[in-house]
Amino acid sequence: NAGVTQTPKFQVLKTGQSMTLQCAQDMNHEYMSWYRQDPGMGLRLIHYSVGAGITDQGEVPNGYNVSRSTTEDFPLRLLSAAPSQTSVYFCASSQSGTSGADTQYFGPGTRLTVL
Amino acid sequence: AQSVTQLDSQVPVFEEAPVELRCNYSSSVSVYLFWYVQYPNQGLQLLLKYLSGSTLVESINGFEAEFNKSQTSFHLRKPSVHISDTAEYFCAVGYFGNEKLTFGTGTRLTIIP
């Protein structure tokens, strides 16, 4: 199993550009989520999905869109990049969308810089 | 609403010395508690978790954490640290029926040779 994979590893954008961060998992997990990690702020939840076709907002959803057309993939779209979106982005997955006790598996992260 | 507090943003410790990383939480319902570790330039991985039963939980690499309901704490301890323990440690809280986790701000553990 590859686990959770993310592409790209690094990305530099100019203000106003759009892009998609890719996330895929091969563990047949129902739950997938996106976090951003900023110094001194820990991990903050952007969007999450409890299964294909179902998405919901997390703590900091503004400026981001998601979709979940398959169990495996959960892309994160930046609509119009802003310097405040400079961060490290992590995708995570877990087996169930309703347990609360499952281990979450994280991808290696995407480091995004917006100039 | 749940919240997690990790008061220590950085903890320097000499190699082979003991360490405690503190975590306090607040919640109006029963919780599940987690410690995740992030090694340099990597994603997070689970270190240990408390779901129910024995209040002392252990990891495979010598860390342990004790759930204290009265003090709403879940501190992480290791009796003797190694250079390889250098990482950032995150405490997280979740609850039954909801996969969303709330993370603390993290504690960076630095081991001094």
How would you sum up this structure, described in words?
The complex is a heterodimer of chains A (115) and B (113). Chain A is mainly beta. Chain A has no helices and 11 strands. Chain A has strands at residues 4-7, 10-13, 19-25, 31-38, 42-51, 54-57, 64-66, 76-78, 87-94, 105-106, 110-114. In chain A, the strands form 2 sheets. In chain A, strands 2, 4, 5, 6, 9, 10 and 11 form a 7-stranded mixed beta sheet that branches. In chain A, strands 1-3-8-7 form a 4-stranded antiparallel beta sheet, with no helix packed on it. In chain A, a hairpin with a 3-residue loop joins strand 4 (31-38) and strand 5. Chain A is globular and about 40 Å long. The relative contact order of chain A is 0.33. With 113 residues, chain B is mainly beta. Chain B is built from no helices and 12 strands. In chain B, strands 2, 5, 6, 10, 11 and 12 form a 6-stranded mixed beta sheet that branches. A 4-stranded antiparallel beta sheet of chain B has the order 3-9-8-7, with no helix packed on it.
Please give the structural blueprint.
The complex is a heterodimer of chains A (115) and B (113).
Chain A: E1 4-7, E2 10-13, E3 19-25, E4 31-38, E5 42-51, E6 54-57, E7 64-66, E8 76-78, E9 87-94, E10 105-106, E11 110-114
Parallel strand pairs in A: 2-11
Antiparallel strand pairs in A: 1-3, 3-8, 4-5, 4-9, 5-6, 7-8, 9-10, 9-11
Chain B: E1 3-5, E2 10-14, E3 19-21, E4 24-26, E5 32-38, E6 44-50, E7 56-58, E8 64-68, E9 73-78, E10 87-95, E11 98-103, E12 107-112
